[in-house]
Amino acid sequence: MMNLSKSEIIDILKDDGQNDRVFKLADEIRKKYVGDEVHLRGLIEFSNICKNNCKYCGLQSKNKTIERYRILPDDIISLAEKAVELGYKTIVLQSGEDEFYTREVMCNIIKRIKEFDVALTLSIGEKSTDDYKAYKDAGADRYLIRIETTDRNLYKKMHPNMDFDNRLRCLKDLRELGYEVGTGCLVGLPEQTISSLADDILFFEKINADMVGIGPFISHPQTPLKDVPNGSFTLALKVMALTRILLKNINIPATTAMETINPNGRIIALQSGANVVMPNVTSSEYRAKYEIYPDKICINDSPTKCRGCIEGKIKSIGRTVSKDYGFRK
Ligand code: 5AD
Ligand code: FES
């Protein structure tokens, strides 16, 4: 079952009787192609200011109830430095789409972090081709930008004033510029169909994504989707497992959203195809404010605590923490 057709993917997604078999197969493929090492990426959430209004996201600009923050460049650098001291080999810089960080400001941050001998991933949204080129020239290695859903109609409903084709343009630019490209989707958006989730998986395969992050939709009370129920943990896990079965040697995170709706979610994900975890290395004063969705894990924990916690969990399932940069094998 290695070359799955769309209808086979749909059948698997619909049939819960096959779950254990699918999760086991994804775990075996993970072991064979990327091994037992888990790559840790230190995540810095450096600004929760966003010009967009994604219907599902708590950081949308229409949400006036959250306190906004920006971490200044010098402070971002010191968070990165601390993360490197904790042993992280990759730093991920994530934020809302915040125009305060101009091309020049970002390039300066990138260059300074690259002096610490780490891989650097950006997750800062849709930018121009020239911006992406400048970040790459400054030293950025990877870029995460989820397609969120490949269903154009649903994409339009979920993202007022955004353009699906521009999202595709971003992914194409990033690939052509030589980044390792990460994408992914949400599972459980309103009106999302099983067929469109199958399309999402085939899309990851088509663009040959180097990394794919998948998480359940989690309803945020200060968004238009406040009355929509959360996505299913098991379905999100199955989309992730199928992605591993098809793309084999890519990097797949056990996402924070998985752990938010299941107390053992990251470990279950690591045993169903995932090989990456992205612990938060933002200082505690900001963590609770980066409220993409409610009840996010670790909001009262420190970078040191999370590092120790996750390493303990990884070792408890017989896996190890990787010491290399964790590029795609
Ligand atoms: N529930 C789950 N995931 C969410 N994201 C944004 N809002 C939510 C939510 N309510 C995800 C998006 C985005 C990533 C940074 O967080 O997929 O790409
Ligand atoms: Fe943060 Fe476990 S990873 S406390």
Task: Give the helix tally.
Answer: 13
Q: What's the overall average pLDDT, rounded?
A: 97
Classified by CATH, the class is Alpha Beta
Strand sequence of the main sheet, in spatial order?
A: 2-3-4-5-6-7
Supply the helix-strand structural class: alpha/beta
Using only C-alpha atoms, the radius of gyration works out to: 18 Å
Distance between the termini: 22 Å
CATH topology-level name: TIM Barrel
Estimate nothing, just give the exact number of structural domains. Answer: 1
Ligands bound, unique: 5'-deoxyadenosine, FE2/S2 (inorganic) cluster
Oligomer kind: single chain
The sequence of SSEs as H and E is HHEEHEHEHEHHEHEHHHEHHE
Shape: globular
Count of distinct strands: 9
User: What fraction, in percent, of the residue positions are helical?
Assistant: 40-55%
Q: Give the percentage of residues in beta strands.
A: 5-15%
CATH architecture grouping: Alpha-Beta Barrel
Structural overview:
The chain has 329 residues and is of the alpha/beta class. It has one domain (6-321): Aldolase class I (TIM Barrel). The protein is 42% helix and 13% strand. It contains 13 helices and nine strands. Helix 3 links the parallel strand 2 (42-47) and strand 3. Helix 2 crosses helix 9. The longest helix is centred in the N-terminal third of the chain and has 16 residues, at 19-34. The structure holds 5'-deoxyadenosine and FE2/S2 (inorganic) cluster (FES). The site of FE2/S2 (inorganic) cluster has 7 residues, from helix 13. 5'-deoxyadenosine binds at residues 56-57, 146, 148, 186, 215, 217-218, 220, 257, 292-293.
